[in-house]
Amino acid sequence: MAADRILIVDDEPEMIENCRRVLASTGYQCFSTTDSREALRMLERDRPDLLLTDLRMPEMDGMEILRQARETDPHLPVIMLTGHATVETAVAAVKAGAFDYLSKPFSIDQLQLTVARALTKRRLEQENLNLREQLQGTYGFENILGRSLVLQQVLELVRKAARSDANVLILGESGTGKELIARAIHANSPRCSGPFVPVDCASLPETLLESELFGHEKGAFTGAATTKRGLIETAHGGTLFLDELGEFPMSLQAKLLRTLQERQIRHVGGTRQIDLDVRVVSATNRDLRLQLANGQFREDLYYRVNVIDVAVPPLRERSGDVELLATTFLRKFRGGRGGFEPEAMMALVSYQWPGNVRELQNVVERACALAEGERITLAELPSRLWSSPAPTLAHPPETETSTGLTLKEAKGRWIGQLEAAYVSELLKRESGNVSEAARKAGVDRKTIHRLLNKHGLR
Ligand SMILES: Nc1ncnc2c1ncn2[C@@H]1O[C@H](COP(=O)(O)OP(=O)(O)OP(=O)(O)O)[C@@H](O)[C@H]1O
Ligand SMILES: [Mg+2]
User: Fold this and answer.
1) The pTM is what?
2) Which protein residue's CA is at the shortest distance from atom 18 of ligand 1?
């Protein structure tokens, strides 16, 4: 690791020399100036890890250097050297953001200790910052794609929720991105440097779930050879993600509630209470209110985990997002190449997506595997996408399903559905006679064939 670099600013060359000798012998790389204006230039140019500056100097005082230094690098630790200065001015400096002060004369030990503390703090802050950037890069809001108004409104709420420490319940159909949102909440919360611990409440049998969640003491039950921490405990200082909360067994709900309420956890077979600091984010595709009414979910637990509820809209209610999602997935699978033929995109946009974004992702992946050319055509999409019954003319596409579309997209979709419905009804009436259908429609046979192709009608 490169040596930490320290800038020393003082109008007395002797002071500089003393500090430099001590710090250089400890392995720091020092540079210095007696000129405060030069100091500002060096801050910009040399980007030191620490600034040691005199508080009173003729040209510009240390307070001004401090102010400007923090503007250049808000994380730069600054230690003020005060001679004749009173404690008050030194305290004012610390209030203005200095890390600490040393009143002259100070001992070698004092100097070394203060410098070491300041640099450690900077390193920790830097690591935290890196970690946060990493987390936000992988699980940030940028990864949640979609420009539709409905999704943007949800994300706006999620952003606010993330900053608070309130428990969040995410509701939505399967594949709508609930887990993605849960991770973004954690990554953008004050707990981001703590753990994110997902628990799938549906995948474990009841008996196992209890010891997995709450941990157990050695000998608590047959097979408990050692004491084990539970998942809830592992989330200490971070976020516990209870996925499929609707499947959480009734028999453990009271225990979970008590744990969250008392902020203390007790291992299975244990008596010791362990302090706990977790934030709970949960998700479910079940109708929890219905479960409350049926006595399948405890009301008190429901209100504990549901301080803020976030309803993620199904993909069919934001079909305006389909194109962006599909092209992004395509680029991911194809390494940036290719696109969709208009008919294929039309089919994607008109489909109802019962499996939501996950289904769309699978469809695009499958198409990429099947496609021979650069562009994805209707033929590479599963038949359910183009053989679904077209809306009849008596029932045009509902406007509410168009939410989130631009006018152009909405028009395209309406017209597409109208074309498909018109042609299929007409052909049915004409018993599949294309020439007759073309005559009735006032177009040529080629147009009918083109429309049949375009809409995947047979
Ligand atoms: N808005 C989105 N932008 C990009 N990818 C998304 C989006 N929504 C979902 N996905 C992707 O779709 C897949 C399913 O998302 P996720 O696992 O978060 O859904 P879920 O709501 O938790 O589903 P389930 O209820 O089935 O567990 C993931 O691969 C996720 O990355
Ligand atoms: Mg999920």
Assistant:
1) 0.62
2) 177
